[in-house]
Amino acid sequence: MPSADSVAIRLEPLGQTIATTRGTALRDLLFSYGVEFPCGGHGKCRKCRVKLLEGALPETEEERRILSPDEIAEGWRLACRCFVQDSVTLEIDQWETTILADDTHFSFSPRTGHAVAVDIGTTTLVAQLLDLENGHVLGVRSALNPQTAYGGDIMSRVQSALKPDGLSTLSRLIRESVVQLLHELEVSEKLTEVVLVGNTVMHHLFCGIDPAPLSRVPFRPADDGLKTFRASELGWELPSDPLVQFLPCLGGFVGSDILAGIIASGFDHTEDPIALLDLGTNGEIVIGNKERILCASTAAGPAFEGGRVAGGMRAATGAIAEAHVEDGKLACHVLGNVAPRGICGSGLVDIVAGGLDLGLIQPSGRFADGSKEWPLCGGVKLLQRDIRELQLAKGAVAAGVRLLLHQLESQFHHVDYIYLAGAFGNYVNRDSARRIGLIDFKPEGISPVGNTALLGAKLVLFRTTPGERDFTELRERVTHVTLADDPAFQDVYVESMTFPDGAV
């Protein structure tokens, strides 16, 4: 018989019911069901909105400051502010997301046993179980990074880790989530090793390294080298107690995910310079060849992932993910063939590119008619400040590329190939990205390459032994550039924020 203190939370459209106790914070319950807390649950970003369909969930004073009266009347609440006292039915704002894995074929030297490659992203985790004898992928599992409940960007995670017990909490969360993926993959006694890659903050938080040096100038990691554990040291109960290695970082906020991307993209074998862009909240840029490689990170902000955009969301059901000009109007494509709920990063780039072509948006980023918003479809709007967020993001990346090329004494036409990595790079329309000035390379040389972090981690498993994974020689050929130290950065950044005047 249910306790008098128990309540039920019904989630739609998932059709699932959660049993909990009165007074439980919704934040503690809803993350695993797709509700995100990009600002760390501080009631600033509005991205954890849920809609009350049945029952009572009185609004708080904070919600009355953040949400409009109409939104509150319609039943909208902020999950980070609410404590459930009675049984309710809620509509959650995001569900059915796609996480980018990797299915690239590659040559390898057979070995015995099984291994797992894991890409620890700021937002998502992906793990692949591999048979080292034949190269077959035996299973793939993915999940949202549970640390997202403490902030959607890496600096929010760093600040959370600096609080009392913060580092131990964030380390425990990510370790538990990774081993859960291993259990879901049903690993056996054949599992000999696990290789992990991720950005510098993920490296520190997984390994239990104090991230304080990353919170202040000059933003140098405390320890960015190869870290090796036995599964039992991490509290993992696995049949064979496999070796677990987190690959080394390259400097600053450029992590082992980019090291893996360099390996996957073939920088070791090319005479002519190539470029790799991994675009997210922390945009990473790599340009070079087998002789010399420059890398940098740039604080692009979360616009490429739908963050700080009024109707922004991940590339999930209900997101406007594509748009194009048709018969003098903007036509939008919504994921899942449902009513539009918001705009994801690739959709934002398409929409602004379309607005430029239609003359509705000026090169300065202002609406041509002086308005503050542009109605799109289904009640979703593009606001003037949304365009500004995209300008900040694309300006940071474009400036970083220009400065690295200058240091290499190259021009854009000297770089034959640019690889766009990660989920945003995989789905963004290349013509739209060129139209807004995000990338200014020859279109025939721009290629989406998917999850190079995961591919590189798999290549490491097949091409090296555990003792060879410090990658000392490769790291010595990579120079990490701190863009903010370049005296030209601010001027180039400001120039790069404007949009090209006319089609490119």
What does this structure look like?
It is a single chain. By secondary structure, the protein is of the alpha/beta class. Among the domains are: 6-92, Ubiquitin-like (UB roll) (Roll); 114-265 and 452-457, 2-Layer Sandwich (Nucleotidyltransferase, domain 5). 27% of the residues lie in helices and 25% in strands. It has 14 helices and 24 strands. A six-stranded mixed beta sheet has the order 10-9-8-11-13-12, with helices on both faces. The protein has a six-stranded mixed beta sheet with strand order 23-22-14-15-16-24, sandwiched between helices. A five-stranded mixed beta sheet has the order 2-1-7-4-5. The longest helix is centred in the C-terminal third of the chain and has 24 residues, at 384-407. The relative contact order is 0.11. The model is unreliable at 94-99 (pLDDT under 50).
